[in-house]
Amino acid sequence: PPPPLGGPPPSRRAGRRAAGLAAAAAEPAGGGGAGMEGDRLESPVAIKGIERELICPACKELFTHPLILPCQHNVCHKCVKEILFAFEDSFADGGSESSNPSSPRIKISSSSMDRIDRISRSGTKRNSLTPRSSLFPCPGCQRDIDLGERGINGLFRNFTLETIVERYRQAARAAIAIMCDFCKPPPQESTKSCMDCSASYCNECFKIHHPWGTVKAQHEYVGPTTNFRPKILMCPEHEMERVNMYCEICRRPVCHLCKLGGCHANHRVTTMSTAYKTLKEKLSKDIEYLISKESQVKAHITQLDLLLKETECNSERAKEEASHSFDKLSHVLEEKKSAALRAIEASKNLRLEKLQMQAEEYQGLLENNGLVGYAQEVLKETDQSCFVQTAKQLHVRIQKATESLKSFRPAAETTFEDFVVDIAKQEEILGDLSFHSNGLEIPEINEEQSRMYNKALISWECPGKTDSADTYVLEYRKLNRGEESAMWQETEVCSKSKVISDLDDDSSYAFRVRGYKGSICSPWSREVILRTPPAPVFSFLFDDKCGYNSEHLLLNPRRTSVESRAGFPLLLGSERMQVGCYTTLDYIIGDTGIAKGKHFWAFQVEAYSYLVKVGVVSSNKIQKLFHNTHDVTSPRYEQDSGHDSGSEDAFFDSAQPFTLVTLGMKKFFIPTTPAAPKDPASRILPLPSCLGICLDCDKGKVGFYDAGRMKCLYECEVDCSGIMYPAFALMGGAAVHLEEAVTAKYGEYHDDI
Known about the structure:
Elements: H1 18-25, H2 44-49, E1 66-68, E2 74-76, H3 77-92, H4 116-122, E3 135-137, E4 144-146, E5 156-157, H5 159-170, E6 192-194, E7 199-201, H6 203-209, E8 221-222, E9 245-247, E10 252-254, H7 256-261, E11 269-271, H8 272-292, H9 294-363, H10 370-379, H11 384-406, H12 424-431, E12 435-436, E13 444-445, E14 451-452, E15 456-461, E16 471-479, E17 489-493, E18 497-500, E19 508-517, E20 520-521, E21 528-531, E22 553-555, E23 561-564, H13 568-573, E24 586-589, E25 598-605, E26 611-618, H14 622-626, H15 645-655, E27 658-664, E28 667-669, E29 684-686, E30 691-696, E31 701-706, E32 711-717, E33 724-731, E34 734-738
Parallel strand pairs: 12-20
Antiparallel strand pairs: 1-2, 1-5, 3-4, 6-7, 6-8, 9-10, 9-11, 13-15, 14-15, 15-18, 16-17, 16-19, 19-20, 19-21, 22-23, 23-34, 24-33, 25-30, 25-34, 26-27, 26-33, 27-28, 28-29, 30-31, 31-32
Pfam family, one: zf-B_box
Keywords: Coiled coil, Cytoplasm, Cytoskeleton, Metal-binding, Microtubule, Repeat, Transferase, Ubl conjugation pathway, Zinc, Zinc-finger
Family: Belongs to the TRIM/RBCC family.
């Protein structure tokens, strides 16, 4: 891989873990040669105090060749590459949460795993030694940062931070020395480093490689160091140009080529000396202000110490209260459990007793046993009066036993279906068990801002307009007709909107949201039910080539909106109109056709629109559409004009080269068909705010929908023998806007510097 800017990276043989260096930094620095010019240690204590500012957030070690990210955080050059490779490898392995074996320094946190798919999809392909992703998950701010087209190669090395880290390392020079790069084994301890050669030397090797009277004798040398910073900072975009200006918009150094024709051409820039002076003055003033407030800072520290102790006490008290609450809940459950088990045991004993008695009765029906044996002995009685006295009661018992044999029924049920405990509702309640707070507002889903199209965009807000919650949890589930609804799926959101993908077509989904502030959460919001389109969303733009009348129609630059402008051409054309005839429609179609399958698209018609027709047209009838000689909007051919309705229907069926419905004056007009209502008033519906069209080429049907509720307003058959195109027609003042697809925005971050 290419080395970081400013020359090849030195070996990591002198790199140590930050903890080890911190211990060494606490000892007085002695020996090891002179330090770099201007790099003397202020004091071991002062250096040790800034240790946390010198540690990479990724590897938790001292920075080595730190790069400045667009979010102004610093990360080691090697860590940047390892993080990108780790994410790509994890995505290739199915998103494993274990650390990448090839990158033992980097651990992929579970909170970052949900961004693997986004990062991998957004990468641009490069060579095998360069990470493909242009989005980088910053370990400092946990945001996805766009590295641009050049990726890692477009980042500056933070040489100032390298110098400070080197000062910190100087404290450990006595314990861990830098060895000479040119000595034969065993190498000697180096006494100086050459900034031009980017190497360290002992006294003998330095004399050999920098002899007097040569050009190398003029090289700049310092004390032993591993921080070889270049004398001139070069532009990462134009590697042969030095940076000599500062872009105030992007807040980064640039060269003159960046300003002339690069990405900073229209940005406000200033000279490097002016930027240096301005930023240094601001930084100095801010530091002086902080130093002057030392007593206030100490007071705050004392207050924070008290708050730490108070937090410890309050947390222990909260733990006791929570434990007591769960103990009470456990006690209630134990009582319910004991009562249920006792009831089951009592029912079991009663049933066993009944079944045992029944078994004994049947046992007596056996020969020479029980009732049968007793009856046989009674039959032996010869005295008639005594026999009759005993046989009457015995005969009743024998009859009952005979009837029981004919219709055998157990005396008790063996199943315990009545003793099944239904805990579904209680389980759901326990799943929602959390720390509720009355001070945390219940969010409300904004149904006007939320919409369902190719994806679901769910937006919510708090009634008090305050951001009392830190994060939100959005849950959604599919509602099945006549079946049990699916399980809730949840996603954590830091903003007040979320885009949900991969939803089933022609299905209803319920959404709800709750806010979290730490471990405290608000109750769930009211559930909102939205329905997905009946088919996959079809994307297209208005065609500005085929049949487009630029005199009457006006397209926006993105070709997503078309407007009919009734200007002078319409007034001039009125001279050629016959009495009782209106002007013709201006047609426009989509730039993409449909050959098969089922597709859906949506659009909005402005409320002021006088007349708009929407629908589909076949490719083999497009020419007839734009060159139709009949004026279908004149009273002679108006379907509802009342002139010979039978011939009008025949004309409508045979001469129309397309399938369209009429909109206008805030109304939706259902076409005249044999199946349509006879009453004209019942064929006029209010115009929805958003309309949709669903074309099923396989079944030869087209449906017109209220896209806000995904409700079908009208459906008819259509000939799909050719390629079908979305078609629109406008007359007078009218406008149509295509519905834009829902897209998720990635890589956003706030620049607070």
